[in-house]
Amino acid sequence: MSEAAVAPAGAATAAATRIAAITTDAATVTAMPAAAAPTLAAEWAPGLYGADVATPRRDSLRRRALAVADVLALLGAFALVQIAVPPPGGTAGVALLAALPLWVVLNKALRLYDRDANLLHKSTLNELPGVVHSITLGTVLAFLVAPAVTGADIGRPQMAVFWAAAMALTPATRWAARSLVGRVTPPERVLIVGSGQVADLVAHKIAAHPEYGAGLVGYVDVPSDGRVLCESGLAHLGDVRDFERVCHEHDVERVVIAFSSLASEQLLDLVGTSKRLHLKVSVVPRLFEVIGGAVEIDQVEGMTLMGLRGLTRTQSTLGLKRGLDATGAALGLLVLAPLLAAIAVAVKLGSPGPVLFRQERVGRGNRQFRMLKFRTMVRDAEELRHGLEHLNEMSGGAMFKIADDPRITPVGRLLRRASLDELPQLWNVLRGEMSLVGPRPLIPSENAHVIGRHRARLDLTPGLTGPWQVMGRNAIPFSEMVKLDYLYVAEWSLWNDLKLIVRTLPVVIGRRGH
Hints:
alpha/beta; five-stranded parallel β-sheet
């Protein structure tokens, strides 16, 4: 089912030799002589695509797979209705079969099949609001129209069961369809235009997430002061004047424009060239550090504006978040009480010292509180830290982390792998000192390194989980973690909290806790 067209063997070999793996070690790029500002004159005869792969067929395969997934989910929901609350008569099945093509058309109108082609991160969770919209609207229309058109006697119990089953099955089948397409098709070949810190950041993020289905082939940019710098180790494939040649030789399918030093008009020419070559274009916006994903797109006389959310929130919204936190923490403590007791016994028997570890953390509004965790280290761990400072793996010195910390006890190592050591923080959540989802609770010495606008991360209560948990945890540097927390606070919503909770589950189940 792969959509990659067979390229000439020589071209494929040349392309393979130019692919450089992203590494965390800095790589020095050879100095290049300064060049004049390039023009993007076409160097190739007009062609359909910059890549020698059939990109449209890959996107078509994904769209069809998603449509089949939707049909299977709806059929599964109808089967559950037939088992749980079978409707009288035999016309309900006919009504559903007649509605299936219309439901696919509805999803097409809601862009549930086309959005993936424009995105690097093709997330089923992010499209869930659209799925809810489709299933709710389709179910209501079926309830209202089917009896009049087909004579089917569809009651409220049948529609309720159908809606609930479709809501459970549709995201699952769509996730499976995306996973299947990702396995049977090669990664999308991505070229970065830019060579500064932002380009490095984009390269590291793409390389760290193979589930995106994107493979970096290299970067191009205009030389600046005689040098082209890219510390990620990504292959430098040439100047932007070679853009078309690079795209053809390396079968580029997507271009990511990441703060290139090109002038605005030249960037516009590059985008136009990319579209002529039928390449997908992703652009890192200016001020991306404060934009996040919660923006409103506005149009003023043909000019596109992005409206950003403010940091102010209504008391009713914060009260709802607090109510959900208290309810979730109380239920968690009640349901997990036997597990908490078993862990407490294991910690006590595993090594001398208290069961719980208490540590000062900085909460909302710079108020300090004592955060609880199951003790995972030896009793005198803090005294031993000074002799281990040279092993600190966190850059900048703001935080102290060692992957194989010798102070961790055998029981503590097991608890950390599954993040079970953090369960006592449910008590902090119940007391209002923490939230289920929020920015990372820092110790005072770490909090002192947070300056400027990033201090706004404390406008919300710190959480058990948060963006740092699902986007790398200890693998991301302190400065990046602070930025993630700031964006979380700036674009906070209950829906974002729910998504973070869902994305935390694979981290915990996959034993990627510490």
